[in-house]
Specification:
Layout: E1 5-11, E2 14-22, E3 26-32, E4 39-44, H1 54-59, E5 72-77, H2 83-106, E6 114-120, H3 126-144
Parallel strand pairs: 3-6
Antiparallel strand pairs: 1-2, 2-3, 4-5, 4-6
Helix pairs in contact: 2-3
Length: 145
């Protein structure tokens, strides 16, 4: 089981906190630039679904594992103020969960726990959204290794 890991970084000039905490039945990840939990989304996947194929590892130019098609995202609390933000939050939840599942599999974890992601980000332009997204994923990797 994961212990509590957290970091505070500046992404695009905005203080950003990332926290990962493992529980018996799921893993909680909070990403906030606003000091609150924000929109909670649960990501789950059947344990029989493969996470990566050899093709995915070779062709991925972003360095991030591709979220599996079988991923299920369930809104738990809160909601985004626009369709664009809802899509962005879903993208964060799917990518964060996939990173955690891949890293846990590398550690020979038997269970594939659901991942609950809390997202509270400041509104930015499209270019800044990409930088923030990749910055969050990079720092998440650093927390997990």
């Amino acid at each position: 089981m994961l212990s509590v890991h957290s970091t505070s970084v500046e992404l695009g000039g905005v203080p950003t906190e990332i926290m990962v905490q493992g529980f018996a039945d799921r893993i909680l990840v909070l990403v906030t630039q606003m000091g609150k939990v924000g929109n909670l989304i649960q990501a789950s996947i059947p344990s029989t679904t493969p996470l990566l194929s050899a093709h995915d590892e070779e062709s991925n130019s972003t360095g991030l594992p591709a979220p599996p098609a079988a991923i299920q995202l369930t809104p738990l609390l809160g909601g985004a103020s626009s369709e664009h933000l809802q899509t962005l939050h879903s993208l964060y939840a799917a990518q964060i969960a996939t990173i955690i599942w891949v890293e846990e599999a590398k550690k020979m974890a038997v269970d594939r726990k659901s991942v609950v992601v809390g997202i509270a980000l400041r509104r930015e332009g499209d270019a800044d959204e990409r930088k923030t997204f990749h910055g969050v994923m990079d720092h998440l990797y650093r927390l997990l290794v």
